[in-house]
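From the methods appendix. Each design record in this collection lists the tokenized structure first, followed by the designed amino acid sequence. Records were kept in a plain field format so they could be parsed without special tools. The example shown here is representative of the layout used throughout.

RECORD:
FOLD TOKENS (179 positions):
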């Protein structure tokens, strides 16, 4: 398979936005591959959209169907089918809202919580393995560059020392697509 050509240093100087965009797209391909490998343990039971739903439930806790559909940017009927599938495999369940018994809340089961934690841990380990292969000064530069990139994109930082509030990095912003 032919390798993609990287721009020369001169090309980066002439159009740094284009050069940075290409570098971020390349990094994005790597991160998508890492994410796909981290999902391998659940791929026989879940689709990616169903796993996205587990992540949202993990980060938000008990949630009404309409709010969940909104967060995932899908129709409530689509969210309901996804929820039904997660319930059937024991990863989520419904319960009445104690504050309003006409409402149903959706939440993870212990198995659903463990699935999200395991996938997140695998992703963390693989990214750490890649970062360990970088020179320390490159790591520091990467932290600085990614912090600026994330800030420009409105993404809150992940927490240090454990799973983030949004374990796979998906922000709790209604305008941001969840992937």
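DESIGN:
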């Amino acid at each position: 398979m032919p390798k993609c050509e990287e721009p020369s240093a001169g090309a980066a100087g002439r159009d740094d936005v284009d050069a940075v965009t290409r570098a971020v797209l390349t990094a994005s391909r790597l991160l998508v591959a890492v994410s796909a490998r981290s999902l391998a343990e659940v791929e026989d039971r879940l689709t990616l959209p169903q796993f996205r739903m587990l992540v949202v439930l993990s980060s938000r806790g008990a949630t009404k169907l309409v709010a969940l559909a909104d967060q995932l940017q899908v129709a409530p009927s689509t969210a309901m089918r996804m929820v039904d599938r997660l319930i059937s495999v024991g990863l989520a369940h419904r319960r009445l809202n104690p504050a309003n018994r006409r409402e149903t809340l959706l939440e993870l089961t212990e198995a659903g919580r463990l699935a999200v934690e395991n996938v997140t841990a695998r992703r963390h380990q693989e990214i750490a393995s890649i970062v360990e292969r970088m020179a320390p000064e490159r790591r520091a530069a990467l932290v600085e560059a990614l912090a600026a990139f994330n800030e420009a994109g409105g993404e809150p930082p992940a927490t240090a020392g454990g799973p983030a509030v949004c374990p796979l990095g998906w922000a709790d912003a209604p305008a941001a697509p969840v992937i």
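APPENDIX NOTE: The radius of gyration is 19 Å.
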